[in-house]
């Protein structure tokens, strides 16, 4: 069976299968496993929806090319950073290689590389403490993470510059069992930043504490917050909108 341009019906099916397979691999390797079943069942329609809700926000946020490389060529950046580090053991090359390891969830290697940078007298110690605090958080070493965040704040007039680091601190307090301090941090972030990510994690904490109605209200707040923003903001927050919707349906 051939169409007007000489392509067989089965060739067209093959062209449709390739983006479907790529999306499934992307979803699996980026932790979006809830998308795999819809991508398999709904085929091309699933690919379109996945593109709109997951890939398009990455493109608009400038993360798409980097994420594609991480998914399909995971060792390319590591090899390049290792080569530069072998050429020159500098703080910059150490931190770049540590970042490459962290992107592949090799947090112990990343920490081993970054820790000696603290002893360099000529660097911005606030920045190093923040980078290490994030790495300790991602590796599950929450006490060390919190200690370094506090050191960074002390060096910066008791301020944390980046909103995502404030959320790291709130989550660290949460995971260390310091629930009251965590709750205050979550509430402050939500009040000041209207962060849908913070709303989601705060809702998760409330749910784990058995405060089901408050948790549901927080997951619902994500939906309400979404309606206040233009489409591009919704796309950037697609993950937290989707996860909050899952939590609402699970009640």
TrEMBL record:
The TPR repeat ranges on this chain: 126-159
SUPFAM superfamilies referenced in this protein's UniProt entry, alphabetically: TPR-like
Protein name per the record: Tetratricopeptide repeat protein
Highest taxon above the source species: Bacteria
Segments traversing the membrane: 6-28, 35-53
Keywords on record: Membrane, TPR repeat, Transmembrane, Transmembrane helix
Pfam families: TPR_16, TPR_8
């Amino acid at each position: 069976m051939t169409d007007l341009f000489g392509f067989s019906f089965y060739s067209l099916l093959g062209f449709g299968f390739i983006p479907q397979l790529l999306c499934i691999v992307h979803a699996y390797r980026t932790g979006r496993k809830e998308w795999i079943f819809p991508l398999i069942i709904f085929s091309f329609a699933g690919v379109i929806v996945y593109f709109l809700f997951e890939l398009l926000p990455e493109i608009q946020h400038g993360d798409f090319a980097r994420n594609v490389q991480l998914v399909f060529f995971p060792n390319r950046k590591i090899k390049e950073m290792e080569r530069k580090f072998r050429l020159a053991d500098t703080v910059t090359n150490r931190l770049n290689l540590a970042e490459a390891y962290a992107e592949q969830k090799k947090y112990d290697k990343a920490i081993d590389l970054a820790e000696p940078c603290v002893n360099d007298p000529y660097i911005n110690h606030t920045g190093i403490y923040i980078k290490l605090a994030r790495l300790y958080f991602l590796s599950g070493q929450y006490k060390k993470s919190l200690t370094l965040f506090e050191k960074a704040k002390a060096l910066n007039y008791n301020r944390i510059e980046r909103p995502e680091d404030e959320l790291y601190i709130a989550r660290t307090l949460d995971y260390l069992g310091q629930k009251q301090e965590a709750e205050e941090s979550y509430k402050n972030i939500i009040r000041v930043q209207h962060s849908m990510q913070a709303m989601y994690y705060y809702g998760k904490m409330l749910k784990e504490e058995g405060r089901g109605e408050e948790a549901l209200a927080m997951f619902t707040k994500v939906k309400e917050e979404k309606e206040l923003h233009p489409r591009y903001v919704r796309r950037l927050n697609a993950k937290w909108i989707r996860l909050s919707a899952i939590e609402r349906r699970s009640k």
